[in-house]
Design brief:
Strand order of the largest sheet: 4-3-6-7
Number of domains: 1
CATH topology: Immunoglobulin-like
Mean pLDDT: 86
Low-confidence stretches: none
Distance between the termini: 27 Å
Shape: elongated
Radius of gyration: 14 Å
Number of helices: 0
Helix content: under 10%
Order of helices and strands: EEEEEEE
CATH class: Mainly Beta
Number of strands: 7
CATH architecture: Sandwich
Structural class: mainly beta
């Protein structure tokens, strides 16, 4: 999936401001990939996920559909992801609290 084409819709607080809960996410590193399992408490599905990855040279952001439960980041040679910050977005564009995952790459 090409996440570079996805965009976030600005929040529409006049329609409501309910925010999704804090994501529960787990990370697994294996060789040249980082896999993150995404979910919200009580099985609620967000409209979208925002996954921000802190790399040595900056940040990479992926916007994913809310029904996607697995995000796989391919690691190029020499790339060293340090952490991920994950949040859920409601249909009204409201962002919920974030979860931070530290990434410990296995060699």
């Amino acid at each position: 999936m090409d996440c570079t084409r996805n965009r976030l819709v600005p929040a529409s607080p006049w329609l409501g401001d309910d925010k999704p809960g804090k994501p529960k996410a787990t990370v697994l590193t294996s060789g040249d990939r980082v896999e993150v399992k995404l979910r919200l408490p009580r099985g609620i599905k967000p409209w979208q996920w925002v996954v921000r990855t802190q790399m040595v040279n900056g940040w990479k952001t992926a916007i994913l559909p809310g029904d996607q439960q697995l995000y796989v980041l391919k690691i190029a040679d020499g790339a060293k992801p340090k952490a991920m910050i994950i949040s859920a977005i409601s249909r009204l564009g409201c962002e919920g609290p974030t979860t931070r995952l530290e990434i410990h790459k296995r060699d």
